[in-house]
Amino acid sequence: MESSFRSSLMFWPRWFWRQLTSMRTALFLLLLLALAAVPGSLYPQRSADPNGVRVYYDERPELAAFLDALQLFDVYTSVWFSAIYILLFVSLVGCVLPRLRVHLTALRRGPVQTPENLKRMSAYFESTGALDLEKVRKVLKQNGFRAEIQGDSVSAEKGYAKETGNLVFHFSLVAVLIAVGVGGGLSFSGQRVLVEGDTFVNNLASYDSFSPGPFFNERELVPFSLKLDDFAVIYDLRNPANLGQPIDFVASATLDDGSGATSQEFRVNHPLAAPGANVYLTGNGFAPVITVTDGTGAVAFSGPVVYLPQDSNMTSLGVIKVPDALPEQIGMISFFYPTVAELDTGAYTSIYPDPIDPLLTLNVYTGDLGLDSGIPRNVYALDTSQLEVVASRTGPNPPVELRPGESADLPGGIGRVTFDGVLRFASVDVAWNPGGFWVLLFAAIALIAIVFSLSIRRRRVWVRVRGEKIEYAALARGDDEQLESVLSEIKDEIEKEARV
User: Fold this and answer.
1) Please, which residues bridge with residue 460 across strands?
2) To pair with 131 at 20 to 30 A between CA atoms, which of 97, 121, 215, 393?
């Protein structure tokens, strides 16, 4: 009774383990992992595009909250993705280890016993005469078979390298999963916007956003500095159908790793190799240089402002916040048009992405910008609900319009604004994943192993001599259209070399 109870108690765990460690389940989990990764390319991920997540919340807050609850903005660190990943790892290990034990046992064993009825095999020939079985064994060995004399017959087999390649392939997949997991745990990714002339220092305080892996330690950041000297966009000027479209982005920078400064260039898909990290170019735009003098005549703000591109012709939106202005704080919502053109409605647009005829327009507001409330504020947005409109298309005064080098007084004597010039900015992603090399290595091994495995046939051959009767038989594992021709060639070679 007790034995029956124990048996029933262990039934379901054993059944679950057998199902989990079957090759069918492993293949299903592999497919499921690929499908689970799809949302990571459909929705912005916090680790790579935190600004994209913020924009998603601004544009569709209810949908964004729902997607966030499903962890679709953190797909690769989500509970459900990790669960699939761990189950796949366990399934592969559970599949491969028993097969390895069986394969090693088979390698140590000799060829199988010669069947009594060889006529049942897939390929079969008969002949007459006498053969030297030792010479038969040598001929089969020369053809790559493991051969053994068994009484009046020789049993031979080959193709165990097929299973070896198969096992190497699966062990490589396990190694890829380990490399991805460990590499992801030790990795980090940080984003920074650099305006031409800005210098970035590789420490946590210098990042605009930073996403470390769960095992990352701040002390692993290797010190270096990167100064963006110049950013150039190359446009297509030859193809009329593609006129004005960017064809290349080139960032020129000075990299100082402590042993000396060197000039470097990096592009999209061609990252800059820095100590302990790679620097990727992920975005670009314009940063107009603006100076704001407040109502007392003091300079309250001066410097480049990052403007976010709104269309393919680089019409860009920027927000200027001047909390130190007196007597009132000043906020501006501004548009930059690299090559301006006026529409029939009186509004402006840009007709070309390069700054050929740039124009800056500013809607001006005064009041409490809310920066002293302790609540985080988006630097690319201005909440105007509690501000007084000073200048806008629907306000008491028209928007301020400036070209490079021009200045204008702000309405109401609240100050003066100057458009000093135009710089470019580059958005960079500084990332490091120590598992990248190992993922590539084991993926290459897996590819070589599976190609090697698929190119090998598993075959068994038997040669039996009974009196004047000689039997030749062969059996393949799986379909083998060449089996009869291979056996015929072996038969001809044996009768040539092993006749008595």
Assistant:
1) 157, 475
2) 121
